[in-house]
Design brief:
The protein has 591 residues and is an all-alpha fold. It has 25 helices and no strands. α4 runs antiparallel to α14 and α14 crosses α16.
């Protein structure tokens, strides 16, 4: 049989299905394991052994060392992970990707690459069970309403497409066993390992996945023309080629993000050099290994792939600190480098659950800055200090920057494929960042009111100061419990926000009435009233934004949906908890 245009098209179709199946399966795995990934990645450690297993497990889950490494570059770039922590994770990711080769090797069961399976063992052949997997997968995707089941369906469907693509590739290249030109090229690879390494490198760089290029190599083994002598260096080259994805991803990263990508590249390049030097030196001394001339099958490729990774880890793993130092030598610090850490990295969007967690952490950072701005503004009421006033304005500017960055990032995250919980979390964060930004604005407004009193050389009466002090204390408390409720995601704390907000409203109304009485008695002036009114408005608005934040925390936690109007209406209708808290705060803050 000749290898013609039909075979070429079948090969390309098989490759397309293989790559698409791998992508669908990987995306399904990432969505399904999203919250677990957040748990793993939230427990970063400088211990290289734990980092190794972290990288191994994450890569086993998402079936791509390139994706894991790109995530690591994003973590290092955004400051979530230190450069040293990344070394163990990267090494673990290199081993984790080997599992894909074992899965795709299943395609050779009972085929030309192995003994024919008969009887009960025939059920092991992919042809026997892949159609069942595909049917279950499509049923879950089309008919299931729960996102978790849909993700499972995507995983099954992706795997079925992947295996179908593998079968198409194997069938398409079958005629090449009789093609002398093809076998001649492969013989050349066996005789010249350097060319074989370059071939594996280029192929992997083109398809952007070592798992895919290894799958292509496994498909070609059905020709019987690929020997162990050719396959071993090709596999080595494939491990270097897989670094291209991370290197491209690091182009827009800061110096530590680039160093993480360099660590990935260095590990594989050094691994190829070390393993090649040892293997071919021993081969030359001991005489030509007999097995090098034998034909390799898909299982043999999987074994070679895994052994190469294990040997590389055994050789290089103990020198993980030196890998970090080498990356620092290659990507050097600049004396005038004032590079700031990127808050949010778009590389994390490839794993939406991790991107959501990163956005939540940055929002907590934003909340801390907004909280600090208001605390500083309150302190200026007692004693004005121009430096602290400047600090409040500086903090407000930072909060604005956070809101801009988070708003843009969360919109991008929301366009990703998210499960219901993460989608609700994004909605919550989009609401909350606006409230924290407005709180910092009110901090600046309070500073301006204090400065107006100072510039006009006027002051409130003792009675007005006393009443304002009570209101300020109530606002300080509602701000504190709001910050704690959000950062700890604590519903019990958040339940105290709304009754205290109502007390703040009551205090504002009483202080206004008190001012009108003093104005009638000529104890205050209209000029005092303007400043007092501004301060009361800012205090009351801060409490309103705290109420919004508390409502988001409660609503999302309780119902995984956001309906603020419904929530606030139900709370204000009264409840035992609400009434009890309201009475307690009324007694605590009385004027």
């Amino acid at each position: 049989m000749n290898f013609g245009i039909t075979n070429v098209l079948s090969l390309l179709c098989g490759l397309a299905l293989f790559l698409y199946g791998m992508d669908v399966m990987g995306e399904g795995l990432k969505r399904s394991a999203g919250n677990k990934l957040k748990l793993f990645l939230g427990k970063m450690t400088s211990n290289p052994i734990k980092g190794f297993f972290l990288g191994l497990i994450v890569t086993l889950v998402i079936q791509s060392s390139s994706a894991t490494t790109v995530m690591v570059v994003g973590f290092v770039n955004s400051g979530v992970m230190t450069l040293l922590q990344s070394v163990g994770v990267i090494i673990g990711a290199n081993l984790g990707t080997a599992i894909t080769a074992w899965l795709t090797a299943l395609n050779s069961l009972g085929g030309e690459g192995g003994a024919e399976l008969t009887g009960a063992l025939a059920i092991l052949k992919p042809d026997s069970w892949v159609p069942i997997v595909a049917v279950i997968g499509i049923c879950l995707v089309m008919f299931s309403k729960k996102s978790r089941k849909k993700d499972l369906g995507a995983i099954l469907l992706g795997f079925a497409v992947l295996m179908t693509g593998m079968t198409l590739m194997s069938d398409a290249v079958g005629p090449l066993k009789e093609n002398e030109a093809f076998t001649g090229v492969l013989t050349m690879f066996g005789e010249n390992p350097f060319l074989a390494i370059m071939a594996g490198l280029i192929l992997t760089a083109i398809v952007q996945s070592s798992s895919a290029s290894v799958g292509i190599l496994q498909a070609l083994t059905v020709t019987g023309a690929i020997t162990y002598g050719a396959a071993i260096p090709i596999v080595m080259g494939q491990n270097i080629g897989t670094c291209v994805t991370a290197m491209l991803s690091s182009l827009g990263a800061n110096k530590n993000g680039k160093r993480a990508a360099v660590i990935h590249l260095s590990f594989n390049v050094i691994g190829v050099i070390a393993v090649s030097a040892i293997f071919y030196t021993v081969n030359a001394i001991a005489g030509q290994f007999a097995f090098l001339e034998g034909s390799i099958n898909a299982w043999g490729v999987a074994i070679v792939h895994t052994l190469f990774k294990l040997i590389s880890i055994a050789i290089i793993g103990p020198f993980y600190r030196q890998l970090e130092k080498l990356s620092c030598l290659i990507i050097k610090d600049k004396k005038d480098d004032e590079e700031s850490t990127s808050l949010l990295d778009e590389r994390l969007l490839d794993t939406p659950a991790v991107a959501v967690e990163r956005a939540a952490q940055v929002t907590r950072d934003m909340a801390a800055i907004s909280y600090q701005a208001m605390v500083e503004a309150f302190s200026l009421i007692d004693e004005y200090d121009s430096k602290r006033a400047d600090l409040v304005r500086e903090l407000e500017g930072k909060v604005d920057s956070y809101e801009d960055a988070l708003g843009s990032y969360l919109v991008k995250v929301s366009s990703c494929s998210l499960d219901d919980r993460n989608s609700a979390e994004v909605t919550k964060l989009l609401h909350i960042i606006g409230d924290f930004e407005r709180i910092s604005d009110h901090a600046v407004n309070i500073v301006e009111s204090v400065e107006e009193l100072r510039d006009k050389k006027i002051s409130f009466s003792d009675e007005a100061n006393r009443e304002l002090g009570v209101l300020r204390s109530a606002v300080e408390e509602i701000l504190k419990i709001t910050y704690e409720a959000f950062t700890k995601n604590d519903v019990n704390i958040a339940l105290d926000i709304e009754p205290l907000e109502q007390v703040v409203d009551d205090l504002r109304d009483r202080i206004k009435r008190g001012h009108i009485l003093r104005l009638q008695k000529s104890e205050c002036t209209i000029e005092h009233g303007f400043v007092l009114s501004d301060m009361l408005t800012n205090f009351e608005r801060v409490a309103d934004h705290c109420s919004n934040i508390g409502g988001c925390v409660i609503e999302i936690s309780a119902f995984d949906a956001l309906d603020m109007h419904k929530y606030l209406a139900s709370v204000r209708q009264g409840s035992e908890k609400y009434d009890e808290s309201y009475r307690a705060y009324t007694e605590k803050y009385s004027i």
